[in-house]
Amino acid sequence: MENTNPFIRLTDVRKAFGGVRALKGVDLELRCGEIHCLAGENGCGKSTLIKVISGVYHPDRGTIEIEGAVVRNMKPIDAIRHGIQVIYQDFAVFPNMSVAENIGINRLLLEGEKLVNWKETRKRAIDAMAAIGANIDPDILLERLSVSNKQLVAICRALFNNARLIILDEPTTALTSREVDLLFNILRNLKDQGIAVMIVNHKMDEIFRIADRITILRNGEFISSGTRDEYNNARFSHDLTGRELMAVKYSPAPGDFPDETVFEVEKLTREGSFYDISFAVRRGDVFGITGLLGSGRGEIADAIFGLSPAESGTMHLNGELIDVQSIDDAMNQGIAYVPEDRLTQGLFLERSIQDNIMAASLPAYFSGLKLQTGKMNEDTDRWIRDIDIKTNSAEPPINTLSGGNQQKCVMAKWLNTKPKLLVLNGPTVGVDIGSKAEIHDLVRQLAAEGVGVIVISDDISELLENCNRIIVVHDGYIVGRVTNDVSETELLALLSRPGKESHENEVTD
Amino acid sequence: MRSVLKKSDSNVIALSFLIVVILIAMALFMPDRFYTMSNLRSIVFQFPEYGVLAFGVMACMISGGIDISLVGIANLSGVIAATIMLGMGKSNLSIVLGILAALATGLLAGLFNGSLIGFLRLPPMLVTLCGSQLYAGLALIITKGPALNDLPDNYKFIANGSIGQIPVVLFVFIAVLVFVYFVMNRTVFGRQVRFMGSNYEAARYSGINNLKTTLRCYAFSGLMGAISGILMSSHFNSAKSDYGTQYTLFSILIVVLGGVHPDGGRGRVAGVTLSIILLQFITQLFTFLRIDTNYRTSAYGFILISVLVITMISDKRRLRRMT
Amino acid sequence: MKTKSRISELLTSNQAVIIMVLLVLSIAIGLRNNAFVSFSTVVILARAAILMLIFALCQMLVIISGGIDVSFPAIACAAMYLPVKMMLNYEIDNLWFPFGMAILIGAFFGLINAVLIASLRIPPLIATLGMNSLISGGLLAFFGSTELSRLPDRLNEMFRSYLFTYTASSGLTYSLTILFIIPVVLAIGLSIFLRYTTMGRGVYAIGGNRSAARIAGFRVIRIQYFVYIFVGAVVGIGAMVSCILNRAASPTNLMGSEMMIIAAVVVGGTRITGGHGSVSGTILGVTLIALIQNNLIMLGIPTHWQPFILGFLIVLGTAFTSLKAMASMKQAKV
C-alpha cells in the first residue's frame, strides 16, 4: 500500500539566529506511509529543522504546507493538532509518573480535559501498547524503565495522540542491536498504517536498512533527496561529508618502534558488562574498539579509566602491572580518557578555555605552596598554538568555541597530563568536518610519538581510516580482531556476531 | 596581567563604584560623623563576624551547594569554647584550648554536612537546613538555655580590643581574608571547587575527586563558621545557642551581591569582600539615619531579591545574545 | 512473583515505615505513661497538628512542583496581624473580613513569590528567604512587635466552637475545635486535585521534568503561579486559624516554624527534588513530628534536649527518604 500523498512539504525554509544562519533554504517532503531519513552530521541544522516542523521556531522565509494547505505561524499546539509528534532524544517523559499516565497525559491536554479518568487512561494506554506489541507494566513508574522501553512509551504516546507524522531524533543512539531491530519493526508497522515517519540519523547501515527515502543536509544547506535506491555508500558519504570517501589509512611507520607493547589487558571481566577481554596495544598503534551500543565497548573504557573498575583480569602499562580501582589510580598511572559525551562529561561550559585545559592537571602546578599561574598561562598558550585551537585568547568561556575546537580543548586537557595511554571514546561526535580531520591527525601523531592510543567509536569509516588494528565487541565478548585492510561491509558483519559463541570459537582457534 | 581586567569583573567594578559613591556621599553630607575615628572603628568592630561567615557560604555556593547551618555551627563553636574557658577557670591555656576546640567543632560539623552531601548525595539545602537545627540543638543541650556569660578578658580582647587605634579583629579578618583568597585562588582545592560547581560530571571525568572536594568544601565552611562563632562570643562576651540568627540571610545576601552565582561555579573572593564592605557601609548609613533594625531586615530582604532579579535578567540577556 | 514484589514494596514504602515507627513510639510512650493510651491523646494530637497540617500540605504542594517556600511563616504573620489590626482600628466584627483579608494578603505575597520563581527563575530557596525577611522585617518595622491579644468577639467565639467534646473517665474534658475541619477539607481537596485534575497532574509533571511538561503542552508558568498563589491564600487561612487558636495576633509567633514543616513533609515521603509526594504521606509525617514534639517530656527527655532530638530525627528521616528515592532510581531497569 504505497502512498505518495505528501503529508508535509517545506519549501526554501530559512532560519537564522542572530548572525548565524542555521537553515539556508531547505526543501523537505514527507509522505504518508513512508519512512524518511533526514541525514546530516551534527550541526547541519537537523534539530533546527525539527523545531520548525513542530512549530517551536518560525522560519524566517519559506513555506510549510500540510496536506496541501499552506500553514502560517504554526505554534507547537497547532503542530500537535495536525498530528505532528516529535520524539526527542531524551523522550521528554516524566520519570515520576506511571507508564500509563505518561502515555495518556498529552491526550488529556490536547483535548482540554480538566479531569483525569484513570480507569479509561489506563485501559487506553494498554491498548496503545498492545497496538505496537509493547508489553510493559502500565502501573510502574517510568524511572524504572530501560532506555528502549522509555522510547516505546514515547512512541505509544505519539500514536495515542493520533500521530500522522512521527519524527524520531537519533532514535538508535542508546539502543542495543536487538532493540534497534524491534524499533525498526515497529516503525515499519506504523508505515503500513499510513503514518509518515521521519528518522534523524547519520549511521549509514541503519539508514539503508530502514529508509524509503533520504534527505541529506550539510551546514544548514539542502544537499540532496531521493529514494534509497538512488544512493550507494559512496554517494551517501560524499553528500553527507562533502568529501570523497577514504583518505589515507593509518599505519605506523615501519621500524620506528620495535615490536613493543605499550598497554596490555588480559582476561578483563566485569560481570554484566564485559568478559574475558584481552588485547595488546603496541607502540605506534592506534587501536580501535568498536561494537554496537550496549556491546560493552564503552564499559571497557570505563574500566581502564577506573570509572567502574574491572572485577578480574590484569592490565600492564609499559610492562608494569597496574591496578586501577579508581580514577585517581588511572591518572596516577598516566591514563587519560576523553569521554563520549562532551557537553556533560567533558566541558565546563561557562569556564574559560584555560580553566578547561588545566582542569585535569592542577596538582602538577602546585608547588611552593601555591598554584604557579604563570606556568599555567604559558602551557595553555602552548596548547592553543600546538593543536591549533581557533581562539584569540584563553580567556573567553569555552562555550563560545565550535564543537571541534571544544573537543580539541578536551584533548589538550588530557595531553597536558602527559599521558602514557590515551583512551578516546567517540572522539569526533558532533565535530565539524575540518576539525574532524585535525583531530584524526593529532591522534595519529600521538601514536607516532609513542603514546598508546585507543579509539572507541561506532563510526566504522573513522575507525578503518585511523586505526591500524581493531577489535569488535558484542554482548561483552570480543568477537573479532581485524586490521584496517578489511572492508566496511566485512567489519559491519562482525558487529552482530553472537557474543559468547564467537568468543569461544576464537579462543579454541 | 591578563587577569586584571576580565569581563567577569564587571561585578567587582560595580561594587567598587557603589562603595566610592557612598564614601563621597558621606564626605558631602555627613563628613563630621562618618569620617571620625570612632565611627570607622565601630564599622570595623561589626563586620568581621558575619563577613567570615559569608566566606563559608561563598565556598559552598561556588561548589554548587549552599550552607545555611553556619549560624548554628558558629553558636555551637562559641558555646563549646565558652564552656571550656569557664570550666577551666579562664586561664590563658583555657582560652587557647577553647579556641582550638571551637575550630575543631566547626570542622567536624562541616565534615558531617559534607559527608551527608558527599556520600549520601543528599541535597545540600536539606542537609544544612537540618544541620542548623542539629547544631543549635547541641548548643542548647550544653547551655541548657541561658547564655554563658562573663568570658575571660583576654578572650574578649579578640573582638573588642585594639592595638593603638586599630581593632584587633581587623587583623583577624585580614588574616582570614588572605587565607580564603589563597585557598580559593591559589590551591588545587580552590579550583576544584569551581570545577565541581560548574559541571559535577565533567569534574569527575577530569579526575577530580568530587567526594573529597565536597568534604573539604563543607569542612572549610564549617571552619569559617567556627571563626565567626569565636568572634561573636568574644564580641558579645557571651555564648548562646541562638545568637546572630539574622546572619543566615545576611551572609547569603553578601554572597549573592558579591557576584557568586546561585547555580554554582562562578564567584570571586574579591567580589564577596567588597560586598561585605558595601553592606557594612549601608548598615552604618541605616544607623546614622536611625533606621530601626526591622526596617533593615526588610531592606536586606529587598536588596537580596533585587540583586537576584538583576542577575537573572542579565543571565537571560546573555543567553539570548549567545544563541 | 509480581504480587510478592508489590507487597514487599508496600511494606517498605514510606507510609508503612512511618506507621511502624508511629506504633513503636506509641507503645514506648504508652508503657511509660498509661494516660497516653486513651482517646484524649488523639484529641490533643489533632488539636496540636491543625496548623502544622495546613502549612505542611501547602509546603508539600510547592515541593512537588519542584520549588520550596520558606517565606510562609512571614506571610502567615502578615496575614494574621494586618486583618486583626484593621478590625480593631475600624471596629469591624465579623468572620468574613478576617478570613477574606488573610486570603488576599496571602495570595498577594504568593503572587510575588510566583513572579520571582516562575517568571524570573530565581532559585526558590533564596527567593523565599529574601521574601521572608522583607515581609517579617516590614511588618515589625511598621507595626512593632506588640501582640494583639484582645481579639474581636467573633474571633473569640470561634475559639469556643467545638466539633465535639470528649469527657474522659477522669472527668477531664477534651474538646476539638471546629477549625479542625479546615485541614481535613484541605487534605481531601488537595488529594482530589492532585490525583484527578489535569492541573494537579501538571504539578507533578513540572516537578518531574519541567521541559517535558512544556513540550507536552502544560502551561508550566501558569501552574507555578497557581501553586504559589494558592499556597499563599491557604497560608492566609492557616494564619487566621493560628490567631484564633492562640487567641492573639502576633507578628512573630510563627517565625522559625519552616524547619519543622519542611521536615514533616520530607519525612512524609515527598522528595525534596520535586515530582513525588502524597497527602497521606504528609499527614503521617505531620503526625509523627507532632507526636514526638508533644511527648518528648513524657519519655523523660529534658526540654533543652528537644531541638537536638528533633533535629536528629529529622536528619534520620530525611536521609532515609532520600536514600530510598536514590535506591528506587538505581533499581534494575525493566
Strand order of the largest sheet of chain C: 1-2
Distance between the termini of chain B: 31 Å
SSE string of chain C? HHHHHHHEEHHHHHHH
How many whole angstroms does the radius of gyration of chain B measure? 20 Å
Record field, number of beta strands of chain B: 4
Fraction of residues in helix of chain C: over 70%
Contiguous low-pLDDT stretches of chain B (5 residues minimum) are: 1-7
The largest contact between protein chains, plus residue counts on each side, is: B-C, 49 and 45 residues
What is the N-to-C order of secondary-structure elements of chain B (H for helix, E for strand)? Answer: HHHHHHEHEEHHHHEHHH
Globally, the shape of chain B reads: globular
Describe this protein's structure.
The complex is a heterotrimer of chains A (509), B (323) and C (334). Chain A has 509 residues and is α/β, with parallel strands linked by helices. Chain A has a domain at 261-348 and 419-508: Rossmann fold (3-Layer(aba) Sandwich), CATH 3.40.50.300. Helix content of chain A is 35%, strand content 26%. Chain A has helices at residues 46-53, 76-81, 99-110, 118-131, 147-160, 177-192, 204-210, 233-241, 297-304, 327-332, 342-346, 353-358, 373-386, 403-415, 433-448, 460-466, 488-495, 499-508; strands at 6-17, 20-31, 35-39, 61-66, 69-71, 84-87, 165-169, 196-201, 213-218, 221-227, 261-270, 274-282, 286-291, 312-317, 320-322, 335-338, 366-367, 370-371, 421-425, 452-456, 469-474, 477-483. In chain A, the strands form 5 sheets. Chain A has a 6-stranded mixed β-sheet, sandwiched between helices. In chain A, strands 16-19-20-13-21-22 form a 6-stranded mixed β-sheet, sandwiched between helices. In chain A, α3 packs parallel to α5. The radius of gyration of chain A is 25 Å and the shape is globular. Chain A starts with 5 loop residues before the first strand and ends with a helix. The model of chain A has no long low-confidence stretch (mean pLDDT 86). Chain B has a domain at 44-243. The radius of gyration of chain B is 20 Å and the shape is globular. Mean pLDDT of chain B is 89; it is low at 1-7. Chain B has a two-stranded antiparallel sheet with strand order 1-4. In chain B, strands 2-3 form a two-stranded antiparallel sheet. Helix content of chain B is 76%, strand content 2%. Chain C has 334 residues and is mainly α. Chain C contains 14 helices and 2 strands; from the N terminus they run αααααααββααααααα. Chain C has a two-stranded antiparallel sheet with strand order 1-2. In chain C, α9 (198-208) packs across α10, α9 (198-208) packs across α11 (220-246) and α12 (258-267) runs parallel beside α14. The two termini of chain C are 15 Å apart.
